[in-house]
Amino acid sequence: MTTPTSAPVAAGVLAPESTQVLHVREHCVEVVSDSGEGAQKCGQSFGAVSAKMGNGVWTVEIIPAEIQPPARTPASASGVRIRLGTQAITNWGDHAELVVAFNEQVLLSRHRQEALADDAVILIESMWAEHDNDSIRAAWNAAMEELSARNYRIILVPMEERCLTVVDDPRRGKNMFVFGLLAAIYGRDTERCKAQIAYAFRKKKPEIYERNAELFDLGCAWARENLPFRVEVATEPYTDDMVVMNGNTALGMSAIAAGMDLCSMYPITPATSVSHYLSEVFEDAGGIVHQAEDEIAAVGVAIGASFAGKVAFTVTSGPGLALKTEFLGLAAMTEVPLVVVDVQRGGPSTGLPTKVEQSDLLAVLYGQPGDAPKVVIAPSTIEECFHVLITARRIAEAFRCVVYVLTDANLATGVQPFPRPKPDSNWMAGPPDQDPVPEGARPYDWDDRTGLSRRFIPGQAGGMYTLTGLVHDEDSKVRYATGVNQRGCDMRSRKIAVLQSTLQPPKTHGESHGDVLVVGWGSTRGTIEEAVDRLVSEGHAVSSANLTFLSPLEPGLKDLFARFRSVMTVEVNFSDEKDAPYITDENRRRGQLCTLLRAQTLVDIDCWTRVPGQPLRPADVADAIRANVRSVTADANGDPS
Amino acid sequence: MTATCTLTDCGAAPDVEYSMDDYAGPVARWCPGCGDHSVLSAAQRLLATHQMAPEKTVFVSGIGCSSRFPHYLRTYGFHGIHGRALPISTGVKLARPDLDVFAVMGDGDCCSIGAAHWIHAVRYNVNMVALLLDNNIYGLTKKQTSPTTPQGFPSNTQPRGSILPPMNPLSVTLGVTNASFVAQTADWAPQHLYATLDAAYRHRGFAFVRILQRCPIWTASLFRDAVQDPAKVEVLVHEKGIHDATTEAIHTNHLDHDPSDLNAARALAEEGGMRLGLFFHDPTNACYDETRRVPGYTPEDRIAILKRELDRHAV
Question: Does the ipTM exceed 0.90?
Answer without folding.
Answer: yes
